[in-house]
Amino acid sequence: MKMSRSLFFFSLLTITGLLNLAPPAFSSTNLDLARQLNAAFVEVAEKVSPTVVVITVKQKPAVFKEPEPDEDSGESIPHELWKYFHEQFRDRPREETSGQGSGVIIREDGYIMTNRHVVEDAETIQVRLQDGRTFKAKVRGVDPQSDVAVLQIEATGLPAAKLADSSRTRVGEFAIAIGAPFQLDYSVTFGHVSAKGRGNVVPFYAGGAIMDQDFIQTDANINPGNSGGPLVNIDGEVIGINTLIRGLRTGIGFAIPSNLAREVSDQLIAQGKFTRPWLGVSIAALKDSADFRELIKGVESGVLVSAILPNGPAAKSELRPSDVIAAVDGQAVATPQDLRNEIRRKTIGESVTLDVYRPQPSGDAKKLAIKIKPAEWEAEPVEVAAKNDGPAAKENPDASLGLTVQPLTRELAEKFNVEMTEGVMVASVEKDSPAGRQGIEPGNVITAINSQSVANVRQFRSALKKADLKKGVLVNLLSGDIARFEILKQKSE
Questions:
Q1: Whole-model pTM?
Q2: May I ask the CATH architecture of the domain 52-66+78-89+97-152?
Q3: Which of 100, 317, 345, 392 could cysteine-pair with 372, CB 3.0–4.6 Å?
Q4: Domain map of the chain by residue range?
Q5: Taking the mean position of all CA atoms in its chain, how far away is CA 185?
Q6: Residue of 49, 70, 109, 117 marked active site
Q7: Is residue 172 classed exposed, middle or buried when 0-12, 13-18 and 19+ CB atoms within 10 A define those classes?
Q8: Active site residue: 72, 147, 212, 214, which one?
């Protein structure tokens, strides 16, 4: 009997213990955590949405203009033919084009931040708030290099967003996008900060060479119409301005960091423009120039000067093409954006000191301290065609490189699917030649020889006279949408 009673109590305790170990059907603690996270997202959406605006722009109808004769060939559409087609379409109504984007209120007295490309070429701009009020807006200022624009509306007491310190944003944290994708106003999507400091997002040929490219990458779903809207953290603070996407539904979007956006917008509000210091150089990261690294010893990091523009501050200094800039006033720089950031913070007209490494004939690098005075950057037309060098310019092949070149025209650019830029187009390539062996093809655009910019055939020939195929000729070129360079050498005997 004692044995049975003991066994009974042991069995009861065992069953009770097992019941206590079994997971409950519902864990109130886990559900509470989920509810808190759910409530956090709802709170962010409710907090930030009133600061977001929908921007509608209308642009002027296209105007038919008689085309100018082609600079290189002198050919044009016959006037009578152009007149016939013009008269056929002249009286047809031409509708205004319209587009839509997003923006975020940054000051309660009517200042709104958006992208420059949202309001570019706009004839009228309308801003609609979440409460339904609409206002006509005027452009206070734009900055093409950062793609930031500031609008102004006649209103006060508006809900303004809080801009975060984007330098403290961490990869992996929540990111929430609010905007009007596909005209679906006040859409909220969320994801994470995928990466920071993304450069080379905008290709060189599309203007990336002069743009601030320090993007926050996110997998929060952003689409056309989100441009100019905010990317916010879990505290409802703006960490970036949504700007670019890489393909629809790819989960790859890019935002201008709030620190850069704040710096630019503050000056646009105060002065109506952003005064940007510049050096007047074309640059690339040394780490991305594997072939060049073989030509210089002892330098692991820095910014390679690939070309010096003739009218820029650098042209008046001791800086030379193929120099590697390692620091600005003691602050190390490793990428083009590092250099742009440092120069952007300097005062126009006041000297800065560049720590520079210069290649020597031995392959070693000589360290120099070069002073230069940044000047104010002045926008120039993006499309710069080569000047007419005459019809004979492409008739004499350059036997040393094994290629012929011709002026880059708009027709050739369209034919080979390249953007208009300063350079010369490759017309033909000999198969077994330095150019042919390195894969240079007709349709490629040569932009520099040994780090010297070439805008036309004459400059190309001049630069080539100084080249030495035994040591190697550094040729910068564009192949479709890919910017690259090749080192052309004589074939070893």
A1: 0.65
A2: Beta Barrel (2.40)
A3: 317
A4: 52-66+78-89+97-152, 166-271, 278-376, 391-488
A5: 26
A6: 117
A7: exposed
A8: 147
